Prior knowledge:
Strand order of the largest sheet: 1-2-3
Helix content: 40-55%
Order of helices and strands: EHEHEHEHEHH
Number of helices: 6
Largest sheet: 3 strands, parallel
Number of strands: 5
Shape: globular
Amino acid sequence: MNKAIIPGSFDPITLGHIxxxxxxxxxxxxxxxxxxxxxxxxTLFSIEERKRLINKSISNLNDSDKIKVDSYEGLLIDYMNxxxxxxxxxxxxxxxxxxxxxxxxxxxxxxxxxxxxxxxMTTENLSYISSSSIKQIVKFGGNISGLVPPVIEQDIIHxxxx
Length: 162
C-alpha cells in the first residue's frame, strides 16, 4: 500500500488544505492527515478540536475512507517510522513556503534517508488562503465563505468570537 502523510498545524483547516488532500488521494492509496504539535506556535484550537474540524471537513470527500486523521507530538520522522509511512506531502502556496519546506525536507531526509518529501502547489485560486488569514478575517467581522469548508465555518466563527 502506498501511504503518505500530510502534516501540519491545521489551525484551522482551509480549502487550500482540502485541495492538497484531494489531489494527494489521486496519487496515494492512503493519506494520513497528522496534526503536529509545534511548541513554538500558539494555536487557537486544541489538538482535539483541530482533529474534529478535519474529520468534519473530509467526511464528504470522495474516498474519505482512505483518509486517516491523527496527531503527534515529537519528530515527524519518529511518527512516520511507527506508522510505516515513507512519504511526506507538503502543500506550497508561494516561493516563501518552499524556502522553509525544502530545509525541512533536507533535515528529515538527513535524519531518515528512507523518507521522501513531495511538494504539491496549491491550486492557484486557493493559493492566497492561510489559517492565519482566516482567523484575522473572522476577528474583524469578515466573511470566510469560500475560504474554509462550509461545514466548519460556524465552528471557526464561534471559537474566535467566544
